[in-house]
């Protein structure tokens, strides 16, 4: 965790210049006179003239107390700014993960058990199309379909009336009616790849001796497959949690732009462009922590499901 | 046998049978296989793995099906319950289960033709595991690694009988006790990987016995086990059979096991049954030439090769050329990341051994005894933790291989070569036979390309393979031929010592003597010395002049092979020898088995 925070801070301070340089550049562009003395004063106030390690400890000290600093660009505390977006991002990520699993697991099992059947070929074809289509393109197509055929409002996660409304069941319902489009878009390629992984893994397990043993016991075919080979082939599913989290949060930037989702992706991109270091730093730190937590959760789940891992 | 029986018979119809009767005049045939054929359908047509097989099983008797790999015996046994993996399918025949002739369902006439039932139907599922149960070869992979032993055994009970969870657990404990698993209360909640091979096989047997089956099909149940454990498992199956009057169909390739347990024998070859009969009749007067050959190659093994004795007369054994002086190997020792001392696994413990020039030395032991590790230490593929490996080079210099670096070892590695156990995985499937054999020569870099080519052809001839093999890939060859390729690769750089690690274990009996004779032939021509590592005493007796017995990393006994085999000095050697099944049914029950328990 410490190493992660150090690297995150090093990353955000790494580009030459600081927020004030780009601030000055913007001012100069718009024709304002830049007052060097004012900039220096600001620089001193934010501690930009201090050595790296001092800056780091100031920052991390704040973070530990829940203070992520103040965004230069928005002139608001970073914590406030990030919080809601992060929550929405995580919700979206979880929903997508659920969607992926709910779809990939049965399809994968079906494709493996009925190998080379029509159903398998259909699933495989759709899977490859899903893998090959870029998310943003798929997003545009789906938006078009949704607007033209279903007449639903597709941009953002909330209808206008609920945008700034406090949380309520109605707002939650509104969220549900909006979230399915990004979930499908973000989940498709992951589903496709998971179906392939599940199919390959299960095919490896289906003809193992222990499956024959179970069959010789008199177990029915579907119960047998679900109880034995699937149980072992499911490991990669659990492992996906680890990488799915950070990927969904950072990788969905383009989709989030296209759909104008109020998630963290677009904000982070903006923060990085503007060298808004406290905001960007907070994002990077959170992303890293999420990956670590994700990995931890998936490792714990793996150990729960597979006793061989537990006992080593 | 009865080849005119109609292939479709209505289920439940009475089937006339007047052949076998027990002493009360009752017919004891419980399972009848009539004209069974099983095919594997491929794009190039159907291949008949089982071809018109007819067999009978009697209550309380054991029928052994013998045959070499690929003879269709395993597929036959799976066809009975219709659990052949695709693309295999039962093509024709009948499998009649006479349920009324068993102790349980005595009385009402009740005969089922299993092949008339759909493979996924409830009817056949009810018979699987209840009336007919199976045990498989690989105790490692035949149990699910992620389910507890108790769950897997108990499942068999709950599938066929309505019992509460509590009752199921009690019955499972009872079963585990019956198959002599120590501490069943703890074992029931353990996972298969916490068990040894023998214990897993016991658990498999417990699972098979869960519903007191009428017929037990055991598909090579002891092949993957050590001889001492094999003897225990065979005893166990026997005693259970005596108790419950169960009919056993036992599949094996080991004539020793057959002699030990069979009442009747069926010999299979290329999917057909070539001979059936009483165990004594077949062992004493085999009719079919294949059975005769099979029995001959078994009898041939288990005694010293005459060829070898003659060779030793002509050229006596010379001075020691590879000496292991207190070689010790510890795996995984050292400090772990918290600085705590890890004790590691002591695989080889102060092994003293010498290989003399022109001699064959056998290292025998059970799995995990450290024999392979010792072999690798002697070749210095593994680092040696302590001790010396003294190698006398061709020019008479004595080198200690133990402290050498990889660069210094290049020379000795050309002189000491290995032949591995599994001819299927030790050859790269993407290289031609020519490339495989040439590889050590290319690595040595002393010969030009045309010279290497000529040498490879010479080697192919030496090991008895045709020139046409040069351009072909390993998959085109059988196990025995592949092992010849491995041997050709080993002798390519003109070595002086060959370490053959279980080089014949993966081969059928009739091939074993061929390969061993080939090695003897090469020894005569090329002046080689061999170390043969094996768990099979018969092979060692045939091939080796001296023997070293390993137990838990230590060499417990070493000496002249015949001397050790006839008058074993150490208790462990005695127990090992007494566990080896003798391929003579008349010896059954006469031999006293000694169990060895280490006193520490």
UniProtKB/TrEMBL annotation, chain A:
GO terms for biological process: transmembrane transport. Residues 86-296 form the ABC transmembrane type-1 domain. It is found in: Cell membrane. Keywords: Cell membrane, Membrane, Transmembrane, Transmembrane helix, Transport. It comes from the Bacteria. The chain crosses the membrane at residues 86-109, 121-150, 179-198, 232-258, 278-305. InterPro entries: BPD_transp_1_N, MetI-like, MetI-like_sf. Pfam families: BPD_transp_1 (PF00528), BPD_transp_1_N (PF19300). It is a multi-pass membrane protein. Its main location: membrane. One of its GO terms (cellular component) is plasma membrane. Belongs to the binding-protein-dependent transport system permease family. This is Dipeptide transport system permease protein DppB. It comes from Palleronia marisminoris.
TrEMBL record, chain B:
Pfam families: ABC_tran (PF00005), oligo_HPY (PF08352). The keyword Cell membrane applies. The keyword Cell membrane applies. Keywords: ATP-binding, Cell membrane, Hydrolase, Membrane, Nucleotide-binding, Transport. It is found in: Cell inner membrane. It comes from the Bacteria. Its EC number is 3.6.3.-. It is an enzyme of class 3 (hydrolase). Residues 1-26 are annotated as: Disordered. Residues 31-295, 322-577 form the ABC transporter domain. SMART domains: AAA. One of its GO terms (molecular function) is ATP hydrolysis activity. One of its GO terms (biological process) is peptide transport. GO terms for cellular component: plasma membrane. It is a peripheral membrane protein. Its main location: membrane. Gene3D superfamilies: P-loop containing nucleotide triphosphate hydrolases (3.40.50.300). InterPro entries: AAA+_ATPase, ABC_Ni/Peptide_Import, ABC_transporter-like_ATP-bd, ABC_transporter-like_CS, Oligopep_ABC_C, P-loop_NTPase. NCBIfam families: PRK11308.1 (NF008453). Belongs to the ABC transporter superfamily. This is Glutathione import ATP-binding protein GsiA. It comes from Palleronia marisminoris.
């Amino acid at each position: 965790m410490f190493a992660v925070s150090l690297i995150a801070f090093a990353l955000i301070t790494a580009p030459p210049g600081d927020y004030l340089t780009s601030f000055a550049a913007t001012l100069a562009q718009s024709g304002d006179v830049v007052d060097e003395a004012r900039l220096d004063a600001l620089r001193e106030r934010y501690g930009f003239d201090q050595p790296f390690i001092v800056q780091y400890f100031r920052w991390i000290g704040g973070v530990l107390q829940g203070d992520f600093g103040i965004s230069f660009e928005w002139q608001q505390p970073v914590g406030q700014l990030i919080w809601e977006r992060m929550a929405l991002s995580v919700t979206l990520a979880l929903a997508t993960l659920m969607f992926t699993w709910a779809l990939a697991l049965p399809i994968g099992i079906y494709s493996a058990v009925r190998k080379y059947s029509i159903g398998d070929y259909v699933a495989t074809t759709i899977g490859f199309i899903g893998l090959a289509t870029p998310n943003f393109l798929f997003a545009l197509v789906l938006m078009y379909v949704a607007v033209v055929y279903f007449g639903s409002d597709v941009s953002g996660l909330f209808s206008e009336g609920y945008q700034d409304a406090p949380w309520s069941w109605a707002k939650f319902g509104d969220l549900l009616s909006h979230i399915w489009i990004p979930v499908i878009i973000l989940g498709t390629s992951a589903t496709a790849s998971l179906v392939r992984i599940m199919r390959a893994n299960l095919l490896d397990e289906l003809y193992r001796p222990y499956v024959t043993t179970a069959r010789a016991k008199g177990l029915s075919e579907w119960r047998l497959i679900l109880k034995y080979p699937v149980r072992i082939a499911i490991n990669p599913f659990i492992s996906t949690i680890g990488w799915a989290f950070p990927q969904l949060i950072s990788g969905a930037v383009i989709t989030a732009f296209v759909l104008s989702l109020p998630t963290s992706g677009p904000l982070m991109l903006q923060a990085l462009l503007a060298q808004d270091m406290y905001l960007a730093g907070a994002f990077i730190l959170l992303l890293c922590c999420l990956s670590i937590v994700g990995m931890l959760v998936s490792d714990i789940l793996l150990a729960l499901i597979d006793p061989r891992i537990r006992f080593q | 046998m009865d080849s005119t029986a109609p292939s479709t018979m209505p289920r439940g119809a009475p089937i006339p049978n007047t052949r076998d009767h027990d002493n009360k005049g009752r017919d004891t045939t419980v399972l009848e296989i009539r004209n069974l054929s099983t095919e594997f359908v491929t794009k190039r047509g159907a291949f008949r793995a089982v071809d018109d097989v007819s067999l009978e099983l009697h209550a309380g008797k054991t029928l052994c099906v013998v045959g070499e790999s690929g003879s269709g015996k395993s597929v036959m046994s799976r066809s009975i319950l219709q659990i052949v993996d695709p693309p295999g399918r039962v093509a024709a025949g009948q499998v009649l289960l006479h349920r009324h002739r068993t102790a349980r369902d005595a009385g009402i006439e009740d005969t089922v033709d299993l092949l008339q039932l759909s493979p996924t139907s409830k009817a056949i599922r009810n018979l699987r595991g209840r009336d007919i149960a199976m045990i498989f070869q690989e105790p490692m992979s035949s149990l699910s690694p992620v389910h507890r032993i108790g769950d897997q055994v108990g499942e068999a009970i709950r599938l066929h009988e309505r019992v509460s969870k509590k009752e199921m657990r009690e019955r499972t404990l009872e079963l585990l006790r019956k198959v002599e698993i120590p501490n069943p209360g703890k074992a029931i909640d353990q996972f298969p990987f916490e068990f040894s091979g023998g214990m897993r096989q016991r658990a498999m047997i417990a699972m098979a016995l869960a519903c007191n089956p009428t017929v037990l099909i055991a598909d090579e149940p002891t092949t993957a086990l050590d001889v001492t454990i094999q003897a225990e498992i065979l005893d166990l199956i026997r005693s259970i059979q005596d108790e419950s009057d169960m009919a056993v169909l036992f599949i094996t390739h080991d004539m020793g096991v057959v002699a030990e347990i069979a009442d009747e024998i069926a010999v299979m070859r290329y999917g057909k049954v070539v001979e059936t009969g009483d165990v004594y009749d077949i062992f004493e007067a085999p009719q079919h030439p294949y059975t005769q050959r099979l029995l001959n190659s078994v009898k041939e093994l288990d005694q010293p090769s005459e060829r070898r004795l003659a060779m030793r007369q002509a050229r006596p054994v010379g001075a020691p050329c590879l000496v292991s002086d207190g070689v010790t190997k510890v795996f995984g020792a050292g400090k772990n990341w918290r600085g705590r001392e890890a004790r590691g696994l002591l695989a080889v413990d102060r092994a003293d051994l010498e290989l003399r020039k022109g001699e064959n030395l056998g290292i025998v032991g059970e799995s995990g005894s450290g024999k392979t590790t010792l072999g690798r230490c002697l070749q210095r593929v593994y680092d040696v933790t302590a001790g010396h490996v003294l190698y006398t080079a061709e020019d008479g210099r004595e080198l200690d291989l133990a402290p050498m670096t990889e660069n210094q070892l290049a020379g000795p590695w050309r002189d000491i070569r290995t032949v591995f156990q599994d001819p299927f995985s030790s050859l790269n499937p993407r290289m031609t036979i020519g490339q495989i054999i040439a590889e050590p020569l290319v690595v040595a870099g002393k010969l030009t390309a045309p010279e290497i080519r000529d040498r490879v052809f010479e080697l192919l001839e030496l090991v008895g393979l045709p020139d046409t093999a040069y351009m072909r890939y390993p998959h085109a060859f059988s196990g025995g031929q592949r092992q010849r390729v491995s041997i050709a690769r080993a002798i390519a750089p003109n070595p002086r010592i060959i370490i053959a690690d279980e080089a014949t274990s993966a081969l059928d009996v009739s091939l074993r003597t061929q390969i061993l004779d080939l090695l003897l032939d090469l020894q005569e021509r090329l002046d080689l010395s061999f170390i043969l590592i094996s768990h099979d005493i018969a092979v060692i007796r045939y091939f080796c002049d001296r023997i070293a017995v390993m137990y838990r990393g230590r060499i417990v006994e070493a000496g002249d092979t015949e001397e050790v085999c006839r008058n074993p000095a150490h208790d462990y050697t005695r127990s090992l020898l007494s566990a080896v099944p003798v391929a003579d049914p008349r010896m059954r029950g006469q031999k006293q088995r000694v169990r060895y328990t280490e006193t520490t």
